[in-house]
């Protein structure tokens, strides 16, 4: 499957290989070893031999050999990595099937046509579980499957039915109190934490009133917003609020009409849907 290339081809002959299939050379693969004990992978399979798994099998052999200890005949590297163009689906699949986890995306400058470009960084380290381990496959999937942002908000009302709204420092319009759910955190815990951090209020989250999908908007990716019931609080609660100055400019109980006037249209729709209490799921408040 792999055969050392001749001296002078692709740099150091000890790290460059021909990819063989049926006794013929159908591509090449190499690992360039750095001074830090890591290797950078590159590979190519002729298009006529694509979609047969040849590239992923060859790359997996190269990855395994690179991470195998020198006493067992390998290179003994601590890490191997590769950079793949974000729009190169076949190469991304090859790298993933060879056991490389997706680690991040690097934005590059525009190409000759003025189009923006991205490179996906993939890597594997020597103490990653072997691919035969089910947890390794799950971790691989987890590294490249979509990760949708979650936002948890609280609907708190006063005795007059007005809604607690916040004016944020980083946008002009008003919104429900809450924020982004952190990795590994439950949405219910997140919204309670956000009210404590941003307003100095301890309000246990009640039942889920609404799940609202937010489409991409003004530089934000899409997200799921979960609105929890915060119950009813006295109108003078706002006098006890301790604002986190970095994020909160003001907080007031607003009538639905004022919410409509001060919030974006989709936020106002979300508040109105949450007030109805039986909408279940909406998309941008609809």
UniProtKB/TrEMBL annotation:
PROSITE patterns: GNAT (PS51186), NUDIX (PS51462), NUDIX_BOX (PS00893). Coiled coil: none annotated. It holds the Pfam family NUDIX. One of its GO terms (molecular function) is hydrolase activity. Its cofactor is Mg(2+). Keywords: Hydrolase, Magnesium, Transferase. It comes from the Bacteria. Residues 146-276 form the Nudix hydrolase domain. InterPro entries: Acyl_CoA_acyltransferase, GNAT_dom, Nudix_hydrolase, NUDIX_hydrolase-like_dom_sf, NUDIX_hydrolase_CS, NUDIX_hydrolase_dom. Residues 1-123 form the N-acetyltransferase domain. SUPFAM superfamilies: Acyl-CoA N-acyltransferases (Nat), Nudix. Belongs to the Nudix hydrolase family. This is Acetyltransferase (GNAT) family protein. It comes from Lapillicoccus jejuensis. The lineage of its organism: Bacteria, Bacillati, Actinomycetota, Actinomycetes, Micrococcales.
């Amino acid at each position: 499957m792999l055969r050392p290339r001749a001296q002078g081809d692709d740099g150091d002959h000890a790290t460059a290989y021909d990819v063989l299939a049926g006794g013929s050379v159908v591509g090449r693969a190499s690992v360039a070893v750095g001074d830090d004990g890591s290797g950078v992978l590159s590979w190519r399979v002729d298009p006529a031999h694509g979609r047969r798994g040849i590239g992923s099998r060859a790359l997996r052999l190269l990855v395994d050999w690179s991470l195998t200890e020198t006493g067992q005949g390998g290179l003994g590297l601590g890490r191997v990595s590769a950079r793949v163009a974000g729009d190169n689906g076949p190469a991304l699949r090859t790298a993933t099937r060879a056991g490389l986890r997706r680690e991040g995306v690097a934005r590059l400058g525009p190409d000759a046509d003025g189009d923006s470009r991205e490179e996906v960084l993939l890597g594997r380290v020597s103490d990653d579980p072997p691919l035969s381990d089910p947890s390794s496959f799950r971790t691989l999937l987890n590294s490249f499957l979509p990760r949708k942002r979650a936002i948890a908000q609280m609907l708190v009302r006063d005795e007059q039915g007005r809604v607690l709204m916040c004016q944020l420092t980083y946008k002009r319009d008003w919104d429900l109190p809450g924020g982004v759910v952190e990795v590994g955190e439950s949405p219910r815990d997140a919204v309670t934490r956000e009210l404590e951090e941003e307003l100095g209020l301890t309000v246990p989250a009640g039942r889920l009133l609404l799940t609202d999908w937010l489409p991409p908007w003004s530089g934000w990716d899409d997200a799921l917003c979960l609105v929890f019931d915060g119950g009813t609080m006295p109108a003078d609660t706002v006098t006890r609020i301790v604002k986190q100055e970095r994020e909160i400019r003001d907080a007031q109980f607003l009538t639905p009409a004022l919410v409509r006037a001060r919030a974006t249209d989709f936020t106002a729709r979300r508040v109105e849907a949450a007030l109805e209490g039986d909408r279940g799921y909406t998309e941008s408040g609809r």
